[in-house]
Design goal:
Elements (H helix, E strand, L loop, with lengths): L4 H8 L2 E6 L3 H13 L5 E5 L14 E2 L4 H34 L11 E4 L10 H12 L6 E4 L9 E5 L3 E2 L2 H15 L2 E4 L2 E5 L4 E4 L4 E9 L5 H4 L7 E10 L10 E4 L4 E6 L2 E6 L17 H13 L9 E11 L6 E6 L2 E5 L5 H16 L5
Parallel strand pairs: 1-2, 1-11, 2-8, 4-13, 11-18
Antiparallel strand pairs: 3-7, 4-6, 5-6, 9-10, 10-11, 12-15, 12-16, 13-14, 14-15, 17-18
Helix pairs in contact: 2-5, 2-8, 3-4, 3-8
The chain binds flavin-adenine dinucleotide (FAD).
The site of flavin-adenine dinucleotide has 42 residues, from helix 2, strand 2, strand 12, strand 16 and helix 8.
């Protein structure tokens, strides 16, 4: 199928930049490109609207890293890089809020808690982490040690990050789309079959083509499928459930368990609970959006046994979403050739950092140094 003259004229001919993917990163990239260069023709492409990437399927934590996650980051990429990544997530929230202004995204600054398995406490030095964090964002005692009295199957010592919060991710994406529309970004919704990144050509499954001057590639977990040359981006499926209302289960904050592999929050009276991919082996490193019922069963048992939920509840919603992960939790923002840049590998904290990755990617495309 080919574009008509009118269609080509609308979004294709002389497309300055084609932004590939319309998750948080793609939308933020498109908005920043137009704001930095209003005359630039920007086309944002996804297989459908609303998109089925991680940006509409996540848990809606506005989070920056729990004590065990940051400890893990330091082990993997060293103190300096781990702190730069933490700072980028923290500042990403400001970039996002600057874009959204007063838009309603159900944001609550509720704080985040990490529950610890009894043996995990030895790995975390909270004074050391607080000192590092103070150096990069200036907040004293970012993590507070608190007494866990609600969940007896975990250590009595837990950690509270008052800066964390929760949002409605679909509201974020729809407000960003509206902003992009207002800035004059054109949208094309159909599946891409192939990217010729060296020539900035987008080839769709239906045979049509868009030729751009530059590609800004924000495919995150789906990068390997269309850009196999990019090293160290791996899709990782996460399964999530939402229960029937359980008003007696009280949880104000967002909850991190097991280095962030498990995450829980309330949505109204319901419990949202997801993760556990680390318990299910290499089969979960996939971009297949099919739900893994074994993971859902595990999550249900965990709610009953480990979280001690006695009340009757049923599972009313289940879905799978795909994270883009790698050896490092630092996003990749780089130029891969004269015609293309990538902003990918957002990991499990793209809500906070995503808008900033988009801004940085737009500046990279336009060769603006900051
Ligand atoms: C279950 C789950 C829970 C999460 N919870 C949280 C959380 O609570 N807090 C947090 O900060 N982060 C969370 N994350 C991570 C966060 O959602 C991501 O880091 C972030 O959304 C990544 O945004 P993105 O724009 O880079 O990628 P995506 O939103 O994944 O966008 C990539 C886009 O590429 C498009 N695409 C792919 N292939 C094609 C193709 N062939 N043709 C056209 N388009 C294509 C997709 O449709 C998609 O829209 C979670 C992720 C998952 C999966």
């Amino acid at each position: 199928m080919s574009f008509s003259f009118w269609e080509s004229d609308y979004f294709s001919s002389n497309a300055g930049v084609a932004v590939i993917g319309t998750g948080i990163v793609g939308l933020s990239t498109a908005i920043h490109l137009k704001r930095l260069n209003p005359g630039l023709k920007v086309v944002a492409i996804d297989r459908q609207w609303p998109p089925h990437g991680a940006s509409t399927k996540n848990a809606g934590f506005m989070c920056f890293g729990s004590p065990t996650e940051i400890t893990d980051d330091i082990e993997q990429i060293g103190e300096e890089q781990a702190m730069l990544t933490f700072k980028a997530r923290y500042e990403g929230r400001t970039t996002l809020f600057t874009l959204l202004q007063d838009a309603d995204i159900d944001y609550q600054n509720c704080g985040g808690i990490e529950l610890m398995e009894k043996h995990d406490n030895q790995n975390v030095d909270i004074g050391y982490l607080n000192a590092l964090i103070k150096n990069v964002i200036g907040i004293n005692e970012y993590f507070k040690t608190i007494e866990n009295i609600s969940f007896p199957n975990f250590s009595k010592e837990a950690y509270l990050a008052p800066e964390e919060g929760k949002v409605n991710p679909v509201k974020i994406v729809s407000v960003l789309k509206r902003l992009a529309d207002l800035e004059g970004v054109k949208f094309v919704f159909k599946e891409i079959k192939q990217l010729d990144d060296a020539n900035a050509t987008v080839i769709f499954k239906d045979g049509s083509i868009i030729q751009a001057d530059q590609l800004a590639i924000t495919l995150n977990a789906f990068t390997p499928a269309l850009l196999p040359g990019i090293d160290d981006v791996v899709p990782a499926r996460n399964n999530v459930l939402v229960t029937s209302p359980v008003p007696e289960f009280r949880l104000e904050q967002v909850l991190h368990i097991d280095k962030g592999y498990l995450y829980m929050r309330k949505v109204g009276d319901r419990i949202l609970f997801g993760g556990a991919r680390n318990k299910f082996g290499p089969g979960e490193y996939t971009d297949d959006l099919q739900i893994n019922e074994a993971v859902i069963d595990y999550l249900v048992e965990y709610l009953k046994q480990k979280m001690g939920i006695q009340s009757e509840f049923s599972v009313e919603y289940t879905w799978a979403g795909i994270l883009g992960v790698g050896r490092s939790k630092k996003p990749i923002i780089s130029r891969i050739n004269q015609k293309s840049c990538v902003g990918v590998r957002l990991g499990g904290m793209g809500v906070a950092i995503g808008a900033k990755v988009g801004k940085d990617l737009a500046e990279l495309i336009l060769d603006i140094k900051n």
